[in-house]
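Researcher: Let's try something more involved. This one mixes different molecule types, so please make sure each is placed in the same coordinate frame as the others.
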Amino acid sequence: MPSRRASGKPTSSDVAAAAGVSRSAVSFAFNNPQRISAATRERILGVAERLGYTPDTLGRMLQAGTTNSIGVLLPQRLARTLENPYYARFLMGVGQVCDQEGYTLLLTPPLRESVLKAIPYAAVDGFIVCGLETDRGEVAELDRRGIPFVLIDSDRHEGAPSVEVDDRGGARDVARHLLELGHRRLAVLSIGPEREAVAHGSYGPLARRLAGIADALAEVGMAMADVRLAEAPVTRSDGYRAARELMTGDTPPTAIMALSDVLAYGAVDALQELAIDVPGEVSVTGFDDLAESAWFRPRLTTVRQPIVTKGRMAADFLISAIRGEAQHPHQTLGTSLIVRDSTAKPA
Amino acid sequence: MPSRRASGKPTSSDVAAAAGVSRSAVSFAFNNPQRISAATRERILGVAERLGYTPDTLGRMLQAGTTNSIGVLLPQRLARTLENPYYARFLMGVGQVCDQEGYTLLLTPPLRESVLKAIPYAAVDGFIVCGLETDRGEVAELDRRGIPFVLIDSDRHEGAPSVEVDDRGGARDVARHLLELGHRRLAVLSIGPEREAVAHGSYGPLARRLAGIADALAEVGMAMADVRLAEAPVTRSDGYRAARELMTGDTPPTAIMALSDVLAYGAVDALQELAIDVPGEVSVTGFDDLAESAWFRPRLTTVRQPIVTKGRMAADFLISAIRGEAQHPHQTLGTSLIVRDSTAKPA
DNA sequence: TCAGCTATGTAACACGTGTTAGTTGCCTGC
DNA sequence: GCAGGCAACTAACACGTGTTACATAGCTGA
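Model: All components are placed in one shared frame. Result:
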């Protein structure tokens, strides 16, 4: 009978005792067959089978010093994250590499509203750090832990690999597109509320996109002050509500620039319900180019960012760092303007 | 200087040595402040700070016997899983509970094509087992490990909690709906290829849905043999291709029953490209009722299954089991037919 | 003044594993 | 017949933590 008090799980000591051998022999029987005679090996395996023994995962990990798992440090709660198609797609890219290299994927949301506090509770070989709007010590904490990590959509940080996207250029391109079509009454549907973060000097993707829009506006002698700014948290419904409100003014915009595709979908929903033709009366643009945007009616004009590639590259960099192979590469991925059917000259 | 050979990370022994105290004192300084004098506590914390010490996650987990993490045992690779909106939504439900209870979420894909082999490599307090088409010993393995688990979309298994959906009833409802409208030339767009699994006696959700369709057919004197069956792996594009092929015959169907919403989207894409009106000429139905289906044009007639609730309930059951609170509840969630604009009487 | 209690710190144990160094016995070869 | 080598196995270490049982000193109260 396994001696372990009441917790059930038999340990290698139990097997050793029952088989009349040492604990080492048990380990060899499982991991190093040729290091032990075939006869006793069979006996040990038999006893193990009878007792229902399985090597403990944590014990093995502690000894091996590796978990075969990579963590994704998320800025939002799991429910909000998985609700967002952007993250689903990003994680898909990460997952491709995990599949290939045999890693599991640990999703780590903030613990009690704190990303920092979540770090000690994740048993992983390395972290992919997502959308760190303001660095409140997470990077320092990871550094001192000596655990490899990669920054995504954050500020560039010497001492760690990073993958970013040319958000500024992409936003500039789409704004330019609308301006060249002749639009002057523009509205920006931003992901928010994060204006405070921007005001406080954060340089997340959001701030960069706004900067890109400002760039394009400046080229025609306009400024952000000439643009109407609305904010919606994240979902399609949020975009719907925000767009409805945008159209209530006495001089509604002729073009709505949404800072994510999902918000753009919602905006189109609102316009259709108001019987406003897209793009005949109002043009709408997105950002991301999710797969659905090509199927959406009207087919959405948007900025393509290589989300899956971003995830894949992040995982590649991380695994290289875990293996101690690479230094600290910084990659900035390009964007491209995808002109489809949701934009046209103003009426 | 920390003595540890070259691996970097200082351990509590290093801190103890540097502070001239025992290792226990270091532990107390961090976890049990009142067990030690304020003066030495400050000193220890100071030394720890200087050395850059952080308690090791694995060591702590091993001692505590808990990981604060729950695992999701997936039947497919991560890339395929996260590509599927159904799973994204299911994981969202699981995530809601994780957020609430402070758990992290470990996604565990098959290792070398084997779900079984993946189990020993996941450091979790319990598993949510998804879509176990055929039980090849996974349940036995989890049982012998003595780790709590919950079965989702599988056969009911005494000895473990489970959450299922009335797939059969849902499929029967939607088939009945089409038959009552007058359709007789039906096509089923199944998720596959898994016909072999069904033939081998597996009772996954897919088989149950097919059984439900057979039920409805029987009510009007028809059988599955009278229905055209096509299979598509999983994505919208897959559905598109399969539907195009379905329509090539000399007597194309007047209604397409897709076994998932995503496939239904693809089917509508194909019909639109062929200039076939939906629902005027051909009706299309889905299964799942994803959020997008209400926005889709034409608004999709489908079977709603409570995906998020399923995930939430699975996580609830699991956490109860981890805490040793509950027995082995079995829950079967209901479905409801959502009639929208993608179905009509045949021409 | 001394028994007894509290505050403080430590040694030892427990969690469960893999691996290295070392012991024993048997067989081979000269 | 015995040195040397090999096979089989074990003791001890390492991974890093939290916690329990014990020792010591100082203080309080009768």
